[in-house]
Amino acid sequence: MQTQVHKQLNPTLRAPFKSYQPTSGEEFWDVVVRETAEAKRKLYADPCFKSLCDGTMPLNQYKEWLKETYHFTRNTPRFLSAAGSQVEDDKQFVRTRFFQHAVEENGHHLMALKDLRNLGVDEESVKKTYPCAGTTAIVSMHYYLAHYTNPIGIFGAVFCFEGLAFDLCDQWAKNLKAHHGLSNNCLTFIISHGHFDIEHIKEAKEVINHEVITETDRRDIIYTANKMYDYYRLTFEEIGQLKD
Ligand SMILES: [Fe+2]
Ligand SMILES: [Fe+2]
Known about the structure:
This protein is mainly alpha-helical. The protein has a single domain, classed as Up-down Bundle (Heme Oxygenase, Chain A). The chain contains 12 helices and no strands. Residues 1-11 have low confidence and may be disordered. One fe (ii) ion (FE2) binds next to helix 11.
């Protein structure tokens, strides 16, 4: 009876079980790309996101994006460490990857603060702010996966964010510079992530293709990647509402 009520309330529970097993000639990475294409397309269609891509994003919105990035990245080494601490003993390689990634991301929030400082924003006032709803959802879901459900699902978030940085950081830096005449010391976060994330995407691919073998892990990764695109779109929707 209870199941029937849930079925009525949540249409996703009515969906038939879908296997995400790669077909022959495919790797699981390819499945994740395919199964998240629609959520990614919606993010890319957001007008505020587009303005970051073509460099026309107003400076007050760029500052807000840096503020949200600060809130996200100050949590990154913490939730990656938490995820590593919760990984089962038979997944040593994945546990090591979480810890290494946590160290590699440690301190990146300082780059966002530095860029804000160089744009004339008081960094102490930024530290006193709260993140917007989209960023809160992104950060909260990482901790939730790490502590309560499945830390391996976080590779869906790594897929999303490292992928975006790998694909777009060079373009964002070049176009913001061209449109606003910004110097490199206002673009430290974006410029450096164009380089860092070349390695991170390679390492994420290795885990996703070779270490993810259970159906539950596959489903959790795809679910998380889709949610991250949705929540990040919400962050941009909120930033886009800021007027000059
Ligand atoms: Fe980073
Ligand atoms: Fe990264």
